[in-house]
Amino acid sequence: MVLIKPPEACATAEVYKRLRLDQTSKADPLALLKEITQNGISQDVCVNDLEPPAFEVLRSLKKLKKRFIASNRGDYSAVFMSGSGSTIVGIGSPDPPAFVYDDDDYKDVFVSEARFLTREENEWYREPMSSNATFSKEDSLSEAAPVVD
Fold first, then answer.
1. β-bridge mates for residue 4, sequence order
2. What pLDDT shows up at residue 72?
3. Rounded to 5 degrees, what are φ and ψ at 7?
4. What are the E-state strand segments in 1-149?
5. Mind listing the domains of the chain with CATH numbers?
6. What ranges does the record give for the region Disordered, renumbered to this chain (predicted)?
């Protein structure tokens, strides 16, 4: 998974002001979740009703998403905007598309590889001692990683 965030901010209040509820997706969220669970993430199930208004607020976001989708360097099953913007997420290859390095329009974007953190039910995160370490509610508090202020 790759995250690309342009340096320009996308004001959440402005995005919500432009949101038109009559133009939001009619897809059933539970049906989308079932599709993801059964078949994985695809472009068809990545619905974000805040994309159109965010693309009005920050027009360069729409161009960035289109370039990301058209990219031939990475292999992405889905490309979508996170929340109200302005991060664009590519699910698939950990390699960013070449244009973010080759095109001066994107020289100031933040690019990061990312991955999903998964856990079992009733399992809580702690800094792993090894790649398989986890912490559940049943573990004693003395075993938890210390909290540092």
1. 88, 111
2. 62
3. -70, -20
4. 2-5, 76-81, 88-92, 110-113, 123-124, 135-136
5. 2-113 (3.30.70.890), 117-149 (no CATH)
6. 127-149
Q: What is the pLDDT of residue 118?
A: 77
Token pair of 76 as six digits: 């992405």
Q: Which tokens sit at 70?
A: 């058209």
Residue that the structure tokens 């068809």 belong to: 44
Rg (CA), the chain: 19
CA separation, residue 99 to residues 55, 63, 71 (Å) = 20, 12, 8
Q: Give dist(CA 145, CA 48) in Å, integer.
A: 36
Taken in order 75, 93, 28, 17, the sign of the CA dihedral is: negative
Name residues of the chain where pLDDT drops below 50: 133-137, 139-149
